[in-house]
Automatic annotation (TrEMBL):
Gene coding for it: argJ
Pfam family, one: ArgJ
One GO molecular-function entry: L-glutamate N-acetyltransferase activity, acting on acetyl-L-ornithine as donor
Primary localization class, coarse: cytoplasm
UniProt-annotated catalytic positions: 192 (nucleophile)
Pathway of action: Amino-acid biosynthesis; L-arginine biosynthesis; L-ornithine and N-acetyl-L-glutamate from L-glutamate and N(2)-acetyl-L-ornithine (cyclic): step 1/1; Amino-acid biosynthesis; L-arginine biosynthesis; N(2)-acetyl-L-ornithine from L-glutamate: step 1/4
Annotated protein name in UniProt: Arginine biosynthesis bifunctional protein ArgJ
Annotated InterPro entries: Arg_biosynth_ArgJ, ArgJ-like_dom_sf, ArgJ_beta_C
One annotated GO biological process: L-arginine biosynthetic process
Family according to the record: Belongs to the ArgJ family.
Top class in the EC scheme: transferase
Domain of life of the source: Bacteria
NCBIfam families membership: ArgJ, PRK05388.1
Involved in the stabilization of negative charge on the oxyanion by the formation of the oxyanion hole (site feature) positions: 118-119
Length: 404
């Protein structure tokens, strides 16, 4: 537990009071792996969401953006293996049909059902399989088996991603938990990634929206694997108010605790996504320091983090810092090259724009590590930011050449 009373706990999203989740295989994926998940709150919850900024949006994104405006939700039904994107009117009708069928079988209002899809673009949903799957999901939940949801939303991921925290509030406590998927097509402002978060805190929709926006800005929007932006991204949060403490107020001292806990969960899920990047062998923390503005720092960090030449250099464990300064120069941000310093895990390799006097053996040992901090100091201001990325390996090409 940290000094503010926040501690990490096990259980992921299922650790939250009144939240039940389940996942099964309904046959969308031909390999028999789980592909349909249900997240259910025992009561109507306050809801908020953030979505892809891609101009091409999946049917589930378009429909959720309308439904989330009410600030209420109770169920999330998510499928993997089919993105239901670029499927025209049929795609939107299929999304609505899935939501309506889910609502009917759970005996709740249809507008409280949110949907999500991830997978191959351009193929219509097999609604019949999903409907049969929904019946199985409900039967499984009724049996008390709350397993499989974190696996059922995966595509090229190699492991399920979940995180949860407990926050002490006076004499009571609240919990925040989440699950996520993502391994490729992950770029600024989210990409093929889904994150579903729940909390038993009682909170107004405007405050929940504010807290989620800040959490996403500091986590999912600060990661990149391959610079490709997806059509289906979303982060959804449900707050059912079932915890044994009062409602969070904007100016209360407890609200910052809620924000901190939510950010912690989001950052942990975001880090897992980068660690699980398609073919990734290393996690790279790209820190840009002493920039003129936060925006400049992020732009520079993203330019470096998205550079295939930088990423392949880390995979090959070669110290080609010229690729870093080249990416920095192509960022569009004004800076003074003669002021730039670059560090690997605190070891200076570039000083004032030129090669520094460094120990090659020490740098080589750093490059062999699984997690490396690359710091680029611009020496222009006081603003810092850090972006998480991965290296780029042969395996990434293989995975995406065969994914269909």
């Amino acid at each position: 537990m940290n000094s503010s009373g926040i501690k990490k706990i096990s259980g992921g999203i299922n650790a939250v009071k009144g939240i039940k989740t389940v996942g099964i295989s309904c046959g969308i994926k031909t390999n028999g792996k789980k592909d349909l998940a249900l997240i259910l709150s025992e009561t109507i919850a306050t809801a908020a969401g953030t979505f892809t900024t891609n101009r091409l949006k999946a049917a589930c994104v378009t429909e959720n953006q309308k439904r989330i405006k009410r600030g209420l939700g109770q169920v999330i039904i998510a499928n993997s293996g089919n993105a239901n994107t670029s499927t025209g009117k049929r795609g939107l009708e299929d999304t609505k049909e899935v939501a309506a069928f889910t609502a009917e079988n759970l005996n709740i209002p249809e507008e409280l059902v949110l949907t999500a899809s991830t997978g191959i673009i351009g193929k219509p949903l097999d609604v019949g399989k999903i409907k049969n799957g929904i019946k199985k999901l409900i039967s499984k939940i009724n049996s008390g088996d709350f397993s499989g949801a974190s696996d059922a939303i995966l595509t090229t991921d190699t492991f399920a991603k979940e995180s949860a925290v407990e926050i002490k509030i006076g004499e009571g406590k609240i919990r925040i938990g989440g699950i996520a998927k993502g391994a490729g097509m992950v770029a600024p402002n989210m990409a093929t990634m889904l994150a579903f978060i729940a909390t038993d805190a009682k909170i107004r929709k405007d405050l929940l929206k504010k807290a989620l926006h800040e959490a996403v800005t500091d986590s999912f929007n600060m990661i990149t694997i391959d610079g490709c932006m997806s059509t289906n991204d979303m982060v959804l949060i449900l707050a059912n108010g079932m915890a044994d403490c009062g409602e969070f107020k904007a100016k209360s001292r407890e609200f910052p605790l809620f924000q901190e806990g939510l950010k912690l969960v989001a950052k942990e899920l975001a880090k897992m996504i980068v660690v699980d990047g398609e073919g990734a062998t290393k996690l790279i923390r790209v820190k840009v320091s002493k920039a003129r503005s936060k925006k400049a720092a992020k732009t520079c960090a993203m330019a470096i983090a998205n550079s295939n030449l930088v990423k392949t250099a880390f995979f090959g464990e070669i110290m080609n810092w010229g690729r870093i300064v080249a990416a920095l120069g192509a960022s569009g941000i004004e800076f003074s090259p003669e002021k730039v310093c670059i560090f690997y895990d605190g070891e200076k390799i570039v000083e004032n724009g030129c090669a520094a006097n460094f120990n090659k053996n020490k740098i080589q040992k750093i490059l062999k590590k699984k997690e490396i901090i690359l710091e680029v100091c611009l020496n222009q201001g006081k603003n810092n930011t850090t972006v998480l990325t991965s290296d780029l390996s042969y395996e990434y090409v293989k995975i995406n050449a065969l994914y269909s």
